[in-house]
Amino acid sequence: MSQDNPLENALVRLDEAASHLDIDADVIEKLKFARETTKVRLMIRMDDGSRKSFIAWRCRYDDTRGPTKGGIRYHPESTAEEVETLAFWMTFKCAVMNLPYGGGKGAIQVDPRKLSKAELERLSRAYIQAFARILGPDRDIPAPDVYTNSMIMGWMADEYSQMVGQSSPAVITGKPIALGGSLGRDDATARGGFYLVRHLAADLGLSEELHVTIQGFGNAGQHMAKLMTSDGHKIVAVSDSEGAVYCASGLDVAALIHAKQNGRSVLATVGHGGHEALASEDLVGVACDVLVPAAMEDMIHARNAGSVKAKLIVELANGPVTPEADAILEKMGVTILPDILANAGGVTVSYFEWVQNRQCYYWELEEIHSRLRVIMEREGRAIWNVAKDKGVTMRTAAYVHALLRLSQAIEAHGTQSDFVA
User: How many CA atoms lie within 13 A of 278 on its CB side?
Assistant: First the structure.
């Protein structure tokens, strides 16, 4: 994420949305700042007997609509500003989907690839020990994010349960199925985006067979590739942190996933089935119908946006398109399905997990898929209509849609006009 005031850049979206609504100034004042951001230093024993410390954060941005919700990422370049920005986005994402949550986020400044599994467990449990007073099934509910997974969530849920003296699976989502996780969580982010594209395909003027490029071939990217391929589309280019591969007639998705599952790069498939190596920086310029950024923030920026040839961008990553790139792409006529809508399948199925944990009753996979599809299509259609009615981009429409819900909740507590005669 750009370190040049990322939260201020994100707040540009808030101001733009507010210009299309008649809302009280109290609403903007409340949403401009995080409710609370806590920083701690975690100290753990390393395998060699030494002790090492790691900076960690948890931000609860806004809880007007319910307990805060958001992932915990492990990344060596994480910062407090990044965490607050991600929590801001989560606030709007939950409002977009009409979930009874506010936005939160957490991070540890660490490269988890340099830790043993035992060190990783100690670090994860130390995070819960440090932040237990902030967390809770009715207060703040973490989930996986970059470089965290279901096993880490399982360790965290176990540590919290030990600290409070009772089983509390609803404190964290994204857990292993055996520990109260939900079916359908593994592909929820991609599946939500897939349902959205399929629902709006006719409105977007998309053909029956799409050529798709995916930037980032982690969990979301891999599942999106499988879902699009199973629906008759071709994946023509993908990338990971080591490079990219391209095949105009369609990549062998099974071979790509097999390489990743065996700890190799997508580049390991070069020479197989017509796969060609491609420079990572050239990926966004591949000729295709749909470009899916599924990696990190700020991947499409002012320097490369002009090379985009796709008609549609589906943001499975958080904040992959900078505001400067947004303006360029809008002039080019490229439609963007924004992150707070397109990747919201993840938090929606996390919400399903939380509901199931609290009910102690678990749903079948078909029911989860059906519930997710209904919500994605309902909110996607509503945002499409806002975009058309107001003549704005899908991103601005999504923020307008979310801000209306947030403003109604904030104003229900009273505004200046209620207290001044």
Answer: 26
Q: How far apart are CA 251 and CA 274, in angstroms?
A: 8
Position 310 confidence tier, pLDDT thresholds 50, 70, 90: very high
**SS3 track for 294-327:** CCCCCCECCCCHHHCCCCEEECCCCCCECHHHHH
CA distance 91 to 65: 9
Distance CA 144, CA 350 (A): 10
Task: Give the amino acid at 131.
Answer: F
Which are the catalytic amino acids?
Answer: 105
pLDDT grade for 421, boundaries at 50, 70 and 90: low
Report how far residue 383's alpha carbon sits from residue 97's, in angstroms, rounded to the nearest whole number. Answer: 11
104 contacts 173 by C-beta, under 8 angstroms = no
Nearest CA among 266, 268, 223, 232 for reference residue 250:
232
Q: What is the DSSP letter of 181?
A: P
Using the structure block, give the residue that is written with the tokens 């599994």.
117
Which of 375, 389, 392, 295 shows the shortest CA–CA distance to 341? 375
